[in-house]
Amino acid sequence: MSEKVVTARREVDAAPDAIFELIADPARQPVWDGNDNLAEAAPGQRVHAVGDTFSTVLTNGGLRENHVVEFAEGRLIAWRPSEAGSPPPGHLWRWELEPLGPGRTAVTHTYDWTHLTDEGRFARAHATTTDSLRASLDRLAALAEGC
Questions:
Q1: SS3 state at 127
Q2: Residues of the chain with pLDDT > 90: what percent?
Q3: How confident is residue 52, by pLDDT bands cut at 50, 70 and 90?
Q4: What CATH number does residue 51 fall under?
């Protein structure tokens, strides 16, 4: 099962709140997406709680509905994506922020597909590596450190 949970972690020279805003506002996500999978997301979808949903448009034109399943303001957010109008097939994207001191945060990004049921998505899930998660972390850090 551990091969189905991919994680990357890095320290960022920014406060957790500044980093969290970049993650919790879907309109900002395409800028830092290291998978180069997100084309756009409409403004006004900022996540506030478990049960929220937000939509994104993929680079291939597909629409994704993202169902927030974990949330702690400024610290944790996780969602399960699905095709529009369909239940989530079981994979999860998670972001955890740990304050390390004034203006410094450890950020952990996880992709978990242990519960993925759609075998047609397995190849793409396998292709999501620590390197692609690290690319998102690096882009996110560059934005947050520039704020």
A1: helix
A2: 93
A3: very high
A4: 3.30.530.20
Tokens for 105, please give them. 């945060």
**What global pTM score does this model have?**
0.94
Pull the structure tokens for residue 81: 């994506």
CA 47/CA 55 separation, integer angstroms: 11
Helix or strand run (H / E) with residue 72 = strand 63-72
**How many independent structural domains does the chain possess?**
1
Exposure of 72 in the CB half-sphere (CA atoms within 13 A):
8
Can you state the angle between helices 130-145 and 16-24, rounded to 10 degrees?
A: 120
Beta carbons of 83 and 64 less than 8 angstroms apart: yes
Residue type, 103: G
Task: Note down the domain range covering 74.
Answer: 2-145
Burial class (CB in 10 A: 0-12, 13-18, 19+), 1: exposed
Q: Which residues pair with 97 in a beta bridge?
A: 107
